[in-house]
Every structure is written in C-alpha cells, then in structure tokens.
Specification:
This protein is mainly beta and about 70 residues long. The chain is built from 1 helix and 4 strands.
C-alpha cells in the first residue's frame, strides 16, 4: 500500500491503554525511541492490534514545532 506521508518508522506495540471511547498505543521503534498514537476504540478493534505486533508508524503532520529545552 502506498502512503502520501514520507515519514515512516517501524516498531512493535509496547502497550495499549483503553478508555471508554479512545485508546493510546505505545510503539517501541526499531530505531530506538517511543511513539504514541491515539485512536478510537473502534479503530483499535478494526486494526486488531495487540501487544507485540509489528507495525509501521506513518507520520503526516501539517505543523512540526520545536521547543528548545533549558
């Protein structure tokens, strides 16, 4: 499948936190790092995601902000 987003990272699902309507999926990246994705519970069910699954993180953003620490 082709994606319009050029920023793609691979990793494995580290954890899934479920609320009543939304869920947070934490992904440990192959390139050392952690990314979180927030989606509806329905989307989580449709994707059939579970801990340990291999996934591709596709990042498409209009704005990227940098904040200097310290």
């Amino acid at each position: 499948m082709r994606y319009g987003a050029r920023n793609q990272l691979t990793g494995r699902v580290k954890s899934i936190k479920k609320g009543k309507l939304m869920s947070q999926v934490d992904v440990m990246l192959d390139a050392d790092g952690l990314v979180s994705s927030v989606m509806t519970i329905d989307s989580l069910k449709d994707l059939k995601l579970k801990k340990g699954d291999s996934v591709r993180v596709v990042v498409k953003a209009v704005n990227v902000l940098l904040v200097k620490e310290g």
